[in-house]
Amino acid sequence: MLNRSPLWKTLLVVIIVAFGALYALPNLYGEDPAVQLSGLRGVEADAATLDNVKSQLSEQNIDFANITLEDGQLLVRFSDPDNQLKARDLLDNTMGEQFSVALNLTPATPDWLAAVGGVPMKLGLDLSGGVSFTMEVNMNEAVVKAQEGMLSDFRSDLRGEKIRYRSVKKVDDAIEIVFRNAEDLDQAESFLKKRYRDYLFTDNTDTLTLTSKMSELKLKEIREYALQQNITIIRNRVNELGVAEPLVQRQGQKNIVIELPGVQDTAKAKEILNATATIEFRMVDNENDLATALNGRVPASSQLLYERDGTPVLLKKRIMLTGDHIVDAGSSFDEYSRPQVNITLDSPGGSKFSNATKNAIGQPMATVFIEYKPTDRKDSEGNTIFDKHEEVISVATIQARLGKSFRITGAGSQAEAHSLALLLRAGALIAPIQIVEERTVGPSLGAENVKAGFQAIMGGFALVFIFMLIYYRAFGVVANLALMANLILIVGVMSMIPGATLTLPGMAGIVLTVGMAVDANVLIFERIREELREGKSVQQAIHQGYDAAYSTILDANITTLIAAIILFSIGVGPIKGFAVTLSIGIVTSMFTAVVGTRSIVNAIWGGKRLDKLPI
């Protein structure tokens, strides 16, 4: 019999809509204003910290909803922003030296809903408020860092080829190698030119000097690599540290734009983004006297550094390995219950480290922690000058030839080992960065945008709803039910997709989807009317109306979906937000307008002897 849907198909439609409604439900609960306490330099919040915070808030009569302790962080929820701001000021004054005190908006989703994975949609910066940074990559430091790496590589390569030289040093923007005789100079020039084709080499036979400079192509490659790697590393770092769905994208030749929706306080964000740290492995210099170095006579090939407790260590300048080769790092305890960091290197790093340690068994090696901190000084091009702070975190004797996996100790506490592992896993910035522009979008402005967007969606929905009721009567009610289901499914899918973020242009995409969903129903209903006018029976008109309109609806939606995919692929920021909701809306509208309405129509009018339809 025509127009009789099997039970399983009807149940499937109901289950899909119910599933979408379940995951759309968290969006009704909103967010709580909150204050988050995160430890600085290895400090972790514990039960004593929780009790301390409770007592401080109670003494100052600051009401709070609840306090939770998780992963060494405290989260204090409030019922209103006034108490949130009072608590932030109080805790910042009393605990700001040990903890980063940041404002946050935390989902108020019930526990039972969160247990099944229900989370609200992530809102973009324009809807939720948050902070936006424009950061400039210090390209000069990237080039200098590459040159320092080449110094070490030149020395290693010449030693490997058994070519004798007097010195390898950096002079301005070039690397200068001095040889003992003309034969070594010729041999080195021939070898290095073949190995480093992106470098320009010039020789001076009078002074037995070979000078190397980077070509313009190589300089461009270094700058491009620094920018792209910093973008990747910043994105990984923010994700690792729990800032929800950041937008990190390139702007021009040396700038990076970072948007952090939902973050109200810039202090923690700056701490995360400005952390420009890495580690280096160097051999301890036992050939020269430490006391002589402490008196100011440090050998040219060595450097005097200090451990965290102030113990001096004389190190060789030659870098065995840098943090650029680290692909994974985690914290644990060694056999003596001391905190340690387990490190895994990439293949080139493992090979390089293996070669560097094969002849150093039984000798002490130091792990050097390096941070770049911005100063108030500027260079000739107006870039911020960064001070390099170096600190020895461990000195250990190499017991065996090291490879892709090894461990370092001396991190202090387990919390500090965890922080170091986190930073190394997220990646060390290729070049220092500085914030050149900072913009904060307040929650009130975001709320106004949400209200305006919601009014636009509801306004469009209401007009379409009224039109369909008047023009298509009972069938208009069916179309409106499908329209509501479509809206629920869009919100549910947006909530389920981890990377999906709703922005103001995304709301425009939803409004457009409302019109497209109704358009599909209009095509179907008009086709049914045509079939009825030609004298077909009611059941034949319904059946042929849906079948004939299906191909037209499919073609129109596929072409629109292709356009949305192209927008998402080549667009940035707002364009992507629009493309995401449009793509999801096209798929859900196809389901609700064709499959959904047909199930309802078949359930009400299908398989019955009818003389006319309320259409």
From TrEMBL:
Places the protein is found: Cell membrane
Domain Protein export membrane protein SecD/SecF C-terminal: 433-595
SecD export protein N-terminal TM domain residues: 2-103
Protein origin, superkingdom: Bacteria
The keyword Transmembrane is assigned to this record: yes
Chief location category: membrane
UniProt keyword Calcium present: no
Domain SecDF P1 head subdomain, residue spans: 303-431
Pfam families: Sec_GG, SecD-TM1, SecD_1st, SecD_SecF_C, SecDF_P1_head
Classification via InterPro entries: SecD (IPR005791), SecD-TM (IPR027398), SecD/SecF_arch_bac (IPR022813), SecD/SecF_CS (IPR022646), SecD_1st (IPR048631), SecD_SecF_C (IPR048634), SecD_SecF_C_bact (IPR055344), SecDF_P1_head (IPR054384)
Domain Protein translocase subunit SecDF P1 residue range list: 227-285
Ranges annotated as spanning the membrane: 452-471, 478-497, 503-525, 546-572, 578-601
Topology relative to the membrane: Multi-pass membrane protein
Entry keywords, A to Z: Cell membrane, Membrane, Protein transport, Translocation, Transmembrane, Transmembrane helix, Transport
PANTHER family given in the database record: PROTEIN TRANSLOCASE SUBUNIT SECD, PROTEIN-EXPORT MEMBRANE PROTEIN SEC
Subunit architecture: Forms a complex with SecF. Part of the essential Sec protein translocation apparatus which comprises SecA, SecYEG and auxiliary proteins SecDF-YajC and YidC.
HAMAP family associated with the record: SecD_B (MF_01463_B)
Similarity remark: Belongs to the SecD/SecF family. SecD subfamily.
Function according to Swiss-Prot or TrEMBL: Part of the Sec protein translocase complex. Interacts with the SecYEG preprotein conducting channel. SecDF uses the proton motive force (PMF) to complete protein translocation after the ATP-dependent function of SecA.
Protein name (database record): Protein translocase subunit SecD
Species of origin: Thalassotalea profundi
